[in-house]
Write a structure and sequence with these properties.
Distance between the termini: 37 Å
Largest sheet: 7 strands, mixed
Order of helices and strands: EEEEHEEHHEEEEEEHEHEE
Structural class: alpha/beta
Strand order of the largest sheet: 1-2-3-4-5-6-7
Strand content: 25-35%
Number of helices: 5
Number of strands: 15
Helix content: 10-25%
Length: 254
């Protein structure tokens, strides 16, 4: 795999599988139970994330999709058991409404040494039928570990976070991270994004596991992002086309 993936242990049965060599710095997560494992997102699709996951577990792996954007479903083609919220299922089945050349442009946006064998001319965005459709409140039972589906639209209509009550882990997808939070393109909703942040703010989160950039994300950032959205809303500017708002450790692009 040419060290494309960096594997970091969150605990003895939870791993971050990261793509630090790319400007997106994607994180997928392998959550291992007693009977099965969940791979939360599959990254960019330029390295074989299935091989990386099989180095960590021999249990059956189900893929749980936080949302159907290209940088989160790149390795979906390597798995059979794919799960996604019904709000994004249409994109997974019929294709995300972004031309392939635009996706390739994003992939090549900044210089990057891709793994040997990767051919940009053969790169394609996954399309296929999910094995299971997820809904708000569903519980993913891995045997001894349960992940709760939290519907958090805004970045996409069917965006979800996953919450594990026993550990207090919040797998936050593109809802919470240190970086630019995007709600500026047509399929996003700044108001829904704000409401979703407020929703996860009510959870007793002990650790945030984001989909991009630094893994060192303090729990306090949820309240900071919530307050930031309230600030923009109170100014009457929580609408697309208002640009970027900079805060201490993140920006909001609407």
């Amino acid at each position: 795999m040419d060290s494309w993936f960096t594997i970091e242990s969150v605990d003895k049965s939870t791993y971050a599988i990261s793509e630090y060599r790319h400007w997106e710095q994607m994180h997928s997560y392998l959550v291992i139970g007693c009977k099965s494992a969940a791979l939360i997102d599959t990254g960019l699709g330029v390295g074989n994330i299935r091989e990386a996951a099989l180095r960590l577990t021999g249990l059956p792996i189900q893929v749980i999709t936080t949302h159907a954007h290209w940088d989160h479903i790149g390795g979906h083609c390597l798995f059979d058991d794919i799960r996604i919220h019904h709000g994004d299922a249409n994109w997974l089945i019929h294709g995300f409404p972004l031309p392939l050349e635009a996706v390739k442009g994003n992939l090549l946006k900044e210089p990057c040494v891709f793994p040997s064998g990767f051919d940009i001319d053969k790169y394609a965005v996954f399309r296929g039928n999910p094995a299971h459709i997820l809904h708000e409140g569903d519980m993913v039972d891995l045997g001894g570990r349960q992940l709760q589906v939290i519907h958090t639209p805004g970045h996409s209509p069917g965006h979800i976070c996953l919450y594990e009550d026993e550990t207090g882990y919040l797998f936050s997808g593109d809802l919470i991270y240190k970086g630019t939070l995007d709600a500026y393109y047509p399929s996003t909703s700044p108001v829904d994004f704000m409401n979703s942040v407020n929703k996860v703010r009510s959870l007793p989160v002990k650790k945030i596991l984001p989909a991009h950039y630094s893994l060192d994300v303090p729990n306090s950032i949820i309240g900071e992002i919530s307050d930031a959205f309230a600030y923009i809303h109170n100014r009457g500017e929580l609408m697309q086309g208002k640009g970027k708002f900079a805060f201490k450790s993140f920006r909001i692009h609407i």
